[in-house]
Amino acid sequence: MIKLEHVNKTFGDHQALIDINTEFKEQQTTVIVGPSGSGKSTLLRSLNLLERPESGRYTFNDQLIDFTKPLSSKDILTLRRKTGMVFQGYNLFPHLTVVKNVMEGPVQVLKQTPAVAKKTALELLTKVGLADKAEAYPSQLSGGQQQRVAIARSLAMNPEYILLDEPTSALDPELEAGVLRVLLELAQEKDSMIIVTHNLEFARSVADKILFVEAGKILFDGTPAEFFKQPTQRIADFLAAMTFTTISDKANN
Amino acid sequence: MNSIWHIIVTAIPQIALAGLKYTIPIAIVSFIIGLILAVLTALVKLSPRHGWFSILKAIAYFYVWLFRSTPLLVQLFIVYFGLPYLKIKGVFPNGIQLDPWTAGIMTFSLNTGAYCAETIRASILSIPEGQWEAAYSIGMTKPQVLRRIILPQAARVSLPPLSNSFISLVKDTSLAASITIIEMFEVSQQIAAENYQPLVMYTLVAALYAILCSILSWLQGYLEKRSSRYIKTAN
Which of A48, A104, A145, B229 could form a disulfide with A141 if both were Cys (CB 3.0 to 4.6 A apart)? Predict the structure, then answer.
């Protein structure tokens, strides 16, 4: 279980996160939505300490982090081992083959033998449908394939939570489908996931919980049913702005 | 004409031998030491400014500034002819006397290290932030990220400018003639003094430097190709 209490983060004089309080339960998929620049990526990146909030408490199972105190590198490393991260821009290691990208963490960080790590890596690549690309370099793959490798890379660390920062925003729709299919499968297997996305259809179908973030604040924290069926005015506006039908409706009126 | 051919044919082995004994070893040893210095200096310059890193950073900045702001020939003269007069009671009562080899390799290493440090610093900075983040996110420590992810990619980027530095260094070793090292240029001067054919001798030694550097250019091309296997390029 992940718990955030009174978390604040500023960039210069811009307050990116304001008094964030929420929980992420195990075996659940949480989807974070909100307009661009709302702080949803900052919120996600704070969970594996790529961003360091200035205040608040962060509980990860039995590990407690007080953001007002300096973080020890041991705390940071343990926490990062327990969270996997998937980035919008994939960020695969271009100088390593696909299978070595997936093996890198297990071999270097978990100190697995290359043989063991390779076996797991190939299983994961099969799972994301890319076993035949094991020896290719990332530059030889499409964006969607690269993102699926990135998912396999984060799964290889056997993380307790997988964090995904707009995993399909850089992809064409037909490539997006392949990635979403993998994520759907993970959600069905009850992996613990936290996903920042603009894809509301996807949010509706996989989310156990939705967070709506705007201007650094959580404005909604609840189930998809509540989010889509009884939205507040602000959320209704957001949903309308995100959907083409309403735009064409307005055009017709 | 015959006599000129004769001069050339007898001079080539002598100059080539000097190349094998001095020019090439000095260039290679100095470049290896210089590269190690350069990586360390680049990492210090890129390190966050806190604690005793501030002192290391100041030293790194001073070092690069000093060796890029003064002529290499003057540096050689200070180290070889100047340091013997640096007499410090208790430490160096008789000054620092270095043999030509040591003085040469030290100066060439420090000089090329200062230039290469900037090359390596820039190539590390050219690797996208996302590479650091991805490596950190799988739990790697900073030294692991550098060793496994950043430096291998930075090496590829820095290959052309580092080759520039190495080729320059090979030619700059001719300055070692001034500190009594009998390298290629010194040998050609000695022969010219005997046969009164400076035009022939200096053109000949220039040609030999050109051949040496051409081999290095070819090697650069080969290494670039090899290290770029993973990159999709327009050609």
Answer: A145
B133 touches chain A (CB under 8 A): yes
Please name the residue of chain B whose CA is at the shortest distance from the CA of residue A162.
B137
Largest interatomic CA distance in chain A: 65
Write out the two tokens for A82. Answer: 């327990």
Which two tokens mark A63? 């590990």
State the angle between helix axes of B184-195 and B2-18 in degrees (0 to 180), rounded to the nearest 10. 150
Contacts of B130 in chain A (CB under 8 A): 87, 89, 91
Chain A residues whose beta carbon lies within 8 Å of the beta carbon of residue B153: 94-95
**Chain A residues in contact with B148 (beta carbon < 8 A):** 104, 108
Residue type, B83: L
Q: Quick check: A109 and B136 CB within 8 A?
A: no
How high is the mean pLDDT in each 10-residue block of chain A (253 residues)? 95 93 95 92 95 95 93 92 95 97 96 97 96 96 95 96 94 90 93 93 92 94 91 86 62 54
Beta-bridge partner residues of A24: A2
- Give residue A94's pLDDT: 96
Domain spans in chain A, listed from the N-terminal domain onward: 2-92+160-252
Give the strand pairing for A209-214 and A29-33: parallel
**Second CATH level (architecture) for the domain B2-227:** Orthogonal Bundle (1.10)
Mean pLDDT across chain A:
92
Question: Measured between CB atoms, does A135 come within 8 Å of chain B?
Answer: no
Nearest-Cα distance to chain B for A34, in Å, is: 23
- Give, for all 235 residues of chain B, the pLDDT tens digit: 568 888 899 999 999 999 999 999 999 999 999 999 999 999 999 998 777 889 999 999 999 999 999 999 999 999 999 999 998 888 888 889 999 999 999 999 999 999 999 999 999 999 999 999 999 999 999 999 999 999 999 999 999 999 999 999 999 999 999 999 999 999 999 999 999 999 999 999 999 999 999 999 999 999 999 998 888 755 4
Measured between CB atoms, does A109 come within 8 Å of chain B?
yes
Task: Burial-class residue B8 by CB neighbours within 10 Å (0-12, 13-18, 19+).
Answer: middle
The domain limits of chain B are: 2-227
- Which residue of chain A has the CA closest to B130? A91
Q: Topology of domain A2-92+160-252, per CATH?
A: Rossmann fold (3.40.50)
